[in-house]
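Input:
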Amino acid sequence: MTVNRRTLLGAAAAAPVWGALPYRSARAQAANTIRIGVLNDQSDLYRDISGPGSTHAVRLAVQESGITQTGVNVEVIQADHQNKADVGSTVARQWMDRDGVDLIVDVPTSSVALAVSGLVRERNKVFINSGAATSDLTGAACSPNTIHWTYDTYMLAKGTGGAMVAAGGNTWFFITADYAFGHALERDTSAFVTAAGGRVLGSVRTPFPGTTDFSSFLQQAQRSRARVIGLANAGGDTINSIKQAGEFRITRGGTKLAGLLVFVTDVHSLGLETAQGLVLTETFYWDLNDRTRALTQRLGAMPGNLRPSMVQAGCYSGVLHYLKAVRDMGVAAAKASGAEAVTRMKAMPTNDDAFGEGQIRPDGRKIHPAYLFEVKTPAESRGPWDYYKLVSTIPAEEAFRPIAQGGCALVRS
Amino acid sequence: MGLEDLLFELQMAMPQVILGVINGAFYALLSLGLAVIFGMLNVINFAHGAQFMMGAFVAWMLLAYVGIGYWPALLLAPLIVGAVGVAMERLMISRLYKLDHLYGLLLTFGCALVIEGLFRNTFGSSGQRYAPPREFQALNLELGDFFLPGYRVWVLIAASTICLATWLVIERTKVGSYLRAATERPQLVQAFGINVPLMMTLTYGAGVALAAFAGVLAAPIYSVHPAMGANFIITVFAVVVIGGMGSIMGSIVTGFLLGFLQGLTEVVYPPFSQTVVFVIMAVVLLTRPAGLFGRA
Amino acid sequence: MAEASVVTGAAAARHEEQGFWGFTRAQAIAFLAMSAVVVVSPFLLYPVFLMKVLCFALFACAFNLLVGYVGLLSFGHAAYFGMGAYITGYAAKAWGVPPELAILMGGAIGAALGLPFGWLAIRRSGIYFSMITLALAQMVFFFCLQAPFTGGEDGIQAIPRGTLLGVFDLTADFTMYWLVAFIFLAGFLLIHRIVHSPFGQVMKAIRDNEPRATSLGYRVEQYKLMAFVLSAALAGIAGGTKALVFNIATLTDVRWTMSGEVVLMSLVGGLGTVFGPVVGAAVIVTMQNYLAEFGAWVLVIQGAIFIACVLAFRRGVVGEIGNALRVKL
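Output:
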């Protein structure tokens, strides 16, 4: 018994040592190896939209890039940042400083993404962000080493805000999660609503995190008699507000719900019975066209039995393009300077099954079309995961914030 | 603002306040379970949120895998989760009774992490849906602009009934008197031939079953989600403390009261509605250290 | 971090002599070993990881000062830690304050918050004390969420580490490490000194038998308040240092989960032991770091370790070692 206990104690005491050791011992053949670190939320809120599915998508990109046939090794590692900026930042530093990681992908949660972007720039590596929403990544905080791949708050606001007014939803009320992301979404969307001739009748700020019942806020929204209730929140907050809007029949008088950040996995979780009629913007939908369907097929069984989200598609697309640039410029050059690799990526047009043709702007914004979808009714849906019907397409040039307005220091030169 | 405006505002706030009280039903049920466990076992059950979540998940699993609907689940899920609670008590918690509160809290905190982690690994993070049974539509209330879904009315009825029944059992029955006696003088009660350890085990199981019952009630309203209990737990702790640790009536009344106040805050200054409970807790503790209903 | 020393010092340190600075012989050996580990480890291990360990170790020591020696379990220490981080970060970034001053400002805000909060909270004891500290900390969280200077959930980003005393450029991890190591060791010794001063003796007397301390004529409230303020100030310094190390200050640092984490660190290491919080911080930070690769299993593994700790190693790592060797560590 005592022996056992001591052994265990010894193991516990040794714990500090394991963690700090380099994760991978094989550092010798590093020169010909590209290391990709997928850093995201594997356990919390964003697990289903990024998480292990992103790693899965990155592995497919590596395989399809064909780069391994040219004698280059590619290693993919992953870690959970637990949505904490300090955890994410420790992992990112360790990856780059000790494990020779050349590219960090995904990173949902704005605070972590901004921190990682700064670190990657200091070390001259590459950061392809797919998961975070903040448009600061290509604005005030833009970096020559960072590409913001999939979406951002500006695009969401414009897609849903602008297009809804055009479709007749000219009076708005916002239910806004009370934190910077929610505020940014509300502010940006309000601007598009007013610019398009609509009016914002009011808004209510809901405590974040911790709000589970939105019925009171929904009633306040209903009392304003706005034609559109904008949900400037994400994840569980959005799911609960939509669910409770259904319960309280908020939409029975023709009021529309506009989800400013809704992913296909959220709709799956809600079910069509509840989510029908919801309007939202995404840049990728698995059933959009032949190419996206082909990609979904090739991705095969995603973790958790889900279909790919736009964040996961972004990870695929970003890594594929990066590896193209690596092939083009050579492994040594790509490893030597992340900024050079990003410059090369910007110089090459993108083309893949996830987002079709596109390009990367000097400020690091990857642009591609965005799509305004409406969630189908149960009767309209023809099979599993048949959730969206396309309302309108916003061309790539219009979908994102004009480069001059972002205030990115890279652009002036 | 004139008095008339204020009155008008208050009138408009009525629906919100009603909704707040209904949310208070969840606080009351959850804090009641915590109070029962604390009163009897002297353990602060941090796993209560996870057990609430398990209740909702078991209801969902019963429907998704076995095809058992809402009504049987309302009985079955608390029994199943309560049995898990009994096992937890026998295997782990029972070893801690003689120690400081802190250890019970930390142990159950560890349990909560394990349970939540396992559910996240199995069911992902976006949550499962559980539709409310159709029959509740008969209870739908429509008062002008204000629409109150029948299911919420049912939540209020069910939660109040269970709360009242629990109170009656503890305060007015023989079993309850044994329980109360065992809390005060366990050795003496044991000497009278009552199996105190068994009673403690069953009490923990019952407290957990209450949490699971709240979970089944919540399943159709919130998305059935691994973190659904973690959102509640800190607020519910505050409720128990405000009511007076271990006070049965205190936790019930405070639960509803807090729902009412939160409903008001959601109209007056929404961003503050999750913080208001802590302000009340600080004020209550500084003026009435044993809580509103506690014995000093 | 002190385990190695325990083995070597085991045979010698059976007696509890009061030696250097109030250390017993075993503690003195453990302290020297810990200092040696602090000095040598950056050459072997990753310095940023070590800095994180040291920041949390100081935080846990500050917390332990209150719970271990005064018997007050605060469940709101994140407030001082997090506000320390925000103030240091803001001062360094927005006002260009040099790092040494910025960190001191972090400590000052900790003390400034600790004074009124402590004044309110020490009126109660036991679980009620914990709950008041939690309530007050939740209000601080609300303030941080709302106040514009904290940057909401994006936090304060890109905080410059600056130049220490106008001479040492802290952007190099190694230079920063020595500063952090100095702050940690200074804080650790300060706490130890306090605990073994006459003031500390009174604190322990209060913990063990408060009515008796009162009857002996000690103004118990004042002692408690001073311990509270000191603990809060050191927590603020730890938070401020962490903000400089990572260049960020975010809401994670003020959330109640952070208050919970520091309780766990102290428990895993050993409540009321001198070295326990340090070891506990090392274990927990390592777990977070190392388990990051295990994805969602982090929660399960963490939970299982806590259960094991409570059921089998209630004295914590250091407490169990000390018990096995019959020395106080």
